[in-house]
Design a protein that fits this description.
Layout lengths: L8 H14 L2 H14 L1 H11 L4 H16 L4 H13 L12 H20 L2 H22 L9 H6 L2 H18 L6 H12 L1
């Protein structure tokens, strides 16, 4: 049997959980916020195409997650922002544009990043990451016209460059975070640069 030349999503999830468990809460927040940042354009393009939604609210949500790493932010303020983000979640039944799923993932990732600010939990940080993976997965399947009912659909999608790029992006951010004891402004910019690379 030949060895796979790509990382499976299941293996990635196991590695992700293992690394997040040993990172401090601030680093988990940074990781989750980087996942939310990676989906920024998904919501923006959806809002432009559908003429629905408020990208500025999601931008404020992501900014608040990053701010919570630099300084103390009240739980009330974070909860208020979560509620605002949830109000601009697109209904995938009512708004059937090609990028509505990516917009939903963008909101989910931002909300999970904000929840990570409150909990510091591995599960919330993973929620932000899984939303970003879901967007890549859906895009890869649609781009390649893969029937989800095909026996080998998962393997075809999983090995696609879009999915592998997202898994690699997440691993690169984790690698940077593992090497940082404290998250000062320079470190945050380094993480955000890795995210945009």
């Amino acid at each position: 049997m030949t060895e796979k030349l790509w990382v499976t999503v299941d293996d990635h999830k196991k590695e992700l959980e293992s690394v997040l468990r040993v990172l401090p809460a601030t680093h988990r927040i940074a990781f989750a916020a980087s996942c939310a940042d990676s989906l920024r354009l998904e919501y923006e393009s959806f809002a432009k195409e559908s003429r629905w939604g408020q990208p500025a609210i999601l931008e404020r949500g992501r900014a608040l997650a990053w701010e919570s790493i630099r300084q103390s932010v009240s739980r009330d303020r974070i909860n208020e922002m979560i509620a605002l983000c949830e109000r601009i979640t697109p209904d995938t039944d009512e708004l059937q544009t090609p990028n509505v799923s990516g917009a939903l993932d963008a909101v989910t990732s931002t909300v999970e990043a904000l929840r990570t600010c409150l909990s510091g939990s591995v599960g919330d940080a993973m929620g932000a990451a899984l939303a970003a993976i879901d967007t890549a997965w859906m895009s890869a399947g649609e781009r390649n016209g893969i029937d989800p009912n095909d026996a080998d659909a998962s393997e075809k999608i999983e090995s696609d460059a879009l999915v592998q790029r997202e898994l690699r992006r997440q691993r690169e951010v984790l690698q940077v975070l593992r090497g940082l004891r404290d998250l000062d402004e320079k470190a945050i910019q380094e993480i955000r640069q890795t995210n945009n690379g």
